[in-house]
Amino acid sequence: MNYRKYFLQALRKHYPGDSEAMAADTERVYKHVSTDIRFSSTSPNPLDRRLDFTAYFLAFIQVLEKKGEPFSRIRSLCLEVVGEYVRPKNQWQKWLKRLPARLVTNPLARGLIKIMGRKVSRKGHPDGFLAKVLTDKEETYGLGYGFDILECGICILFRKHGAGQYVPILCEVDKITSGLAGLQLIRSGTIANGAEKCDFRFKKAEKP
Q1: To pair with 128 at 20 to 30 A between CA atoms, which of 51, 55, 77, 152?
Q2: What is the model's pTM?
Q3: Rounded to whole angstroms, what are the CA distances from 44 to 117, 124, 197, 198, 200?
């Protein structure tokens, strides 16, 4: 739940006179939106846990829309919020974010990846995620790890609330988080932009 403070930070920075009212409005809209993702906290598909954060994003976006902000402004604010949220706050956090990429070839990690693959390959709820994990090195640029999102719970949620046009903003976040993990994201398409699936393939990023 600590993600809320980053939304409030952005509101206080950009709307100092209206920030408290807009924050309260965001909470009100979130309570309404979150009724559609109550299943996420208990879903057997771990990807569905992401829906609470994205429901808050949706509420934030709807409040900005109400304010009359254009798409470009909403995109900029959303990327600012998520950039601050995922940014490592110290060297320890920076190291932790890069750890999974270093362990992906470890036998124990590969066992955990297979377990995760079984969980995400089954729908936990009709409005949730469905994914396929790939471990074949020939399909994953030699890394031995990649995945396809076959059904996107974020798209389902946003479209249900008439906000499907904003989902590609959240797709941009994947590049940010991949970079922090020391990986280069390679993707040919996303469901949000009309593709049949979101394909996540990675290469280890070159050291600067």
Answers
A1: 77
A2: 0.91
A3: 12, 5, 21, 21, 22
